[in-house]
Amino acid sequence: MAPPPQPPTATKYFWGDSPEPDEYYASLGLRHAEAYFQSPCGRLFTHSFHPLSAASDGDVKGVVFMSHGYGSDSSWMFQNIAISYARWGYAVFCADLLGHGRSDGVRGYLGDMEAVARAALSFFLSVRRSGAYASLPAFLFGESMGGAATLLAYLRSPPDAGWAGIILSAPLLVFPDDMYPSRVRLFLYGLLFGLADTWAVMPDKRMVGRSIRDPAKLRVIASNPRLYRGSPRVGTMRELARVTVLLQESFGEVAAPFLVVHGTDDGVTSPEGSRMLYERAASEDKSLILYDGMYHSLIQGESDENRDRVLADMRAWIDERVRRYGAAAGAAAADGQAEAPAA
Predict the structure, then answer these.
(1) What value does the mean pLDDT take over residues 53-62?
(2) How far apart are CA 309 and CA 65, in angstroms?
(3) Which of these is catalytic: 73, 96, 214, 266?
(4) Which residues pair with 33 in a beta bridge?
(5) Do residues 138 and 333 make contact, with C-beta atoms less than 8 angstroms apart?
(6) Helices 234-250 and 271-280 meet at what angle, rounded to 10?
(7) Residues of the signal sequence (predicted)?
(8) Residue 266 falls in the annotated catalytic set
């Protein structure tokens, strides 16, 4: 058997071999922490980011809960998104999804997206309902496959969650035609009664050429020591195909304010899914931004100029929602928590 492909020669951190993490985050005006969280579905590895200017946990504009994309984790380039939001004055919490990074599960396996979403939601709510965070406006953020997990977590949230808004970056809501898993393969592997569910044997159609535009950033992303490099697993493709259909059927249940952004030349997730969500959602406050000619990875893989444009749009949107709804959303969530029975 041939040895598995090895990552390119990598630096210690995505920013290089130095400085060490505490010094790096402090240079950006942030404090950072890592921890494990035991969810009902498995243990999650988590990060938090706060602006150093915040005298206490509650001395921030709001709190944002983030989910990364397929095969990735929250410890490498995805941090750039969390760091940006924290530097804007938000407390940010990320979790490696089950089957990814340092969380529990078979690497690259998403055989039960309900469990994946439930585990992340359990962590998010444990923070959202604690201390000073209960009175703050809270937002969900998801990128790519993490966008599907985020929307599923929103749909499974209890009424007292009090989400002030949702931000989705190139969410996986519709498979592009040439990315869709072969129904014949899924049927044939299904005849093995689940024995093949974790097999990494599905054709790899990730189309990296339409995912990450900047070659230098692609090299950094590819050097992530925890990046899943195997072929898609049977259960992962089966479940993502199922969940995208389920989400499409549930778009009308989305009532929270949301922003969805997508590149028109995305070859990994279809911009049509973002259009469908925008058109069908019940939300009165909804925004869709399509970036002409941009690829899939809008923040991690585009040019600095394009990245800054996307981040500026996200910042304008979230700051405006805090201004519009922040106090009311935080008060409603705090009241709901006060009235909720003890777990």
Answers:
(1) 83
(2) 22
(3) 266
(4) 48
(5) yes
(6) 30
(7) none
(8) yes
- Per domain, the residue ranges of the chain are 21-338
Q: Which of 121, 166, 141 is nearest to 80 (CA)?
A: 141
pLDDT tens for 138-194 read: 999 999 999 999 999 999 999 999 999 999 999 999 977 666 666 656 555 565 556
List the one residue out of 36, 103, 41 whose CA is nearest residue 68. Answer: 103
Q: What is d(CA 221, CA 50) in angstroms, rounded to the nearest whole number? A: 24
Q: Does 296 participate in catalysis according to the annotation?
A: yes
pLDDT tens digits, residue range 73-89? 999 999 999 999 999 99
Other CB atoms within 10 A of residue 324 CB? 15
pLDDT tens, 242-277?
999 999 999 999 999 999 999 999 988 999 999 999
Distances (CA, A) of 336 to 16, 19, 131: 45, 43, 14
Catalytic residue among 39, 74, 296, 297: 296
Give the number of residues written for the chain: 343
